[in-house]
Each structure stands twice: as structure tokens, then as C-alpha cells.
Amino acid sequence: MVKKVGFAEDGQFNVAVVGLGWWGKAIIETLQGSSKIRVAKTVDMIPAAGEWAKSQGLEYTADFDAALADPSIGGVVLCTPHSEHARQIIAAAKAKKHVFCEKPLSLTRRDVVAAVEACKANGVVLAVGHEHRFKPVTADVLRMVKSGEFGTIQTTEASLTHPLRPLAPDNWRLQKTEAPGGTMTALGIHGLDLCIAVNGPAESVFANVRSLASPTRDTVTVLVSFKSGAQAVITSLMGPPFSIRFAVFGNQGWVEVHDKAHPQAPEGWILTKCKHGGRAETVEYPPMSMVRANLEAFADAAAGRAPYPVPHEEMIANIAALEAIGKSGDTGQIVKVEG
């Protein structure tokens, strides 16, 4: 058997995790024990991050280009500031490295199209950190919707909340240039992704962005109109205790999903559905790591075992809508989604 470039002798996919902040470290912890993907290198420009990596027995470099030049590395996992994503995706694609990028893939439709095209042109996989797609309960909801079980979809709702993070005022996550649309890049984008999975591309958005619980833009409500004719309401709040709720309403029934805990330490999910003529039925789903499932799907795609399940078109639709939400939040106007 010939060993594939970027894969270890045991078949594991070798990746470099780029960015060793909170979530980069969480991903490294999540991948411990995976039989499909291993962290073979870490990258961060901050010396303290390098010391942490070395303390974990991980190979470390401060040089992103050096990691891309390493023939033992098959892919990169980008946990870097949002504004760097498109440039880094394109650089990795040109180096023939598969790319897993944390959400959002970019901050503009133009940049995400360029990133997708670079991956296509160089024959590499592009994956994105929308782990909620990889919950078994989400797969069941999408199957029900696509089968027509709920009839014509009229409205989709997503509400996402998280306690305020104790971040320094100069932390990049708090800068408006990195977080157009307030909490959308941190929280609401997951709900937007699920709404697009159900309804297809958005046509227009109206966003209300406020600072109610802190000096940051912590309170966001968005009305999305889709080309399908359906609508969605997305609420994204930093302040309340953690909660994620996703619901789909059709003229023949509805379905609602609640997360019991944060994806970093999942405790399972509760699905409730109801159709005309029947009572609401509830099913509980056991916990699993949807973060690891997403990363292992990336490894499967890189190995050619299965296509990555989130289409490029939906990745682009997500960022096009996000860009419009940022503009609407700034202007207070309804904004047409580009493309």
C-alpha cells in the first residue's frame, strides 16, 4: 500500500493547527485519540503559545509558510482572526494543503469566492467549522425537511446565547473589523448556516444590533428573507447562560431542537416535533463530539473516502448573508444579499 502524501504510516491525516487561542487548544484536545486525524504541527506567532505547545509535546513553529512547506503536513486547521482566513486559505491551497477553517470562512462574499476557487483550482478540500451540521439530530431534521414531512417551510428560527467572555478590550474578537454584525461571527453564524441548509440562499436581511449587556455589540436580531420565499429569525446574544435552539415551521408541522450544553462538552440534544392531527413527540439524543465529527469528515474527504458534506455553494451563501447582516446592522436598512 502506497502512503499518501500528508498521511502518517498508520493512515492518520497529518494537520497543522494554526492559532493556539482558546478554540485552537480546544480542537487539539478534541482530536486526542482520533484514529483519522492527528495534530502533527502547531503554528502561532505568540511565543507563549509556542511554550504551551511544547509543554504538550507538540511540534511548534511561528512560521505559517514553513508549515505549508512541510511535506509531512497534509492539511491546516485555521483558528485565526477572521480577517486572515481568506488569505491563509488561498496560501494553503496553492501549497496543495487541504483546509479546515473555523467560521466565518471570510468576511465578504468576494473573499470567500476567491478562497473557494483557489481550493477548486488546486484540488484541495475546503471544510468549515460549522459543527452543528454534524449533530445526528441535525441530520434527522434536514432529512425530515427534505422529505416534505413538514410541508411548505414558512419560517425557521435560531436562537443562540452565551455568557459574556472575560476578554481584554483590545482582544481581536471584540474589534468591529473582525466582528461585523456584532455577535454574528461568534454565535449567530451557526444559526444562519442551519437556516441556509434548510432554506437555501438568502435574498435580503434586516439586522438590529444593540449594546445592552456590555460595551460590546452583544444583542443581535436578524430577519432573513430567502429566495425560496421562506423567512428566518436569528437571535444572537452574549450575556445569558448558554442556549441553542433551532426550529423549523411548515404548513404541515414543526420541529424544534435544543442543545443541552456547549459543543466543547456536549451532553446531547432534545428534538420535539408535531404534525397536524397529532401531539408533540420528544426524542433525546445521546452526546457525541460534533467538533471531532466535523474534523474527521474533513480527514475522510482529504483521503478520498467521502465528499465533505457542506457544499461550496452553501459556504458562499453563508458569508454573502453575513456581509449583508453587517451592513444592515450599521445602516438600519434592509440589505439585499449579493449573488
Report on this model:
The chain has 9 helices and 15 strands. By secondary structure, it is α/β, with parallel strands linked by helices. It has 2 domains: 13-129, Rossmann fold, CATH 3.40.50.720; 132-336, Dihydrodipicolinate Reductase, domain 2. Strands 14-13-12-11-7-10-9-8-15 form a 9-stranded mixed β-sheet, covered by helices on one side. It is globular.
Q: Summed up, what is this model?
A:
By secondary structure, the chain is of the alpha/beta class. It contains nine helices and 15 strands. It has a nine-stranded mixed β-sheet with strand order 14-13-12-11-7-10-9-8-15, covered by helices on one side.
What would the keywords be for this entry?
alpha/beta, 9 helices, 15 strands, six-stranded parallel β-sheet, globular, 27% strand, 2 domains, nine-stranded mixed β-sheet, Dihydrodipicolinate Reductase, domain 2, 339 residues, Rossmann fold, 31% helix
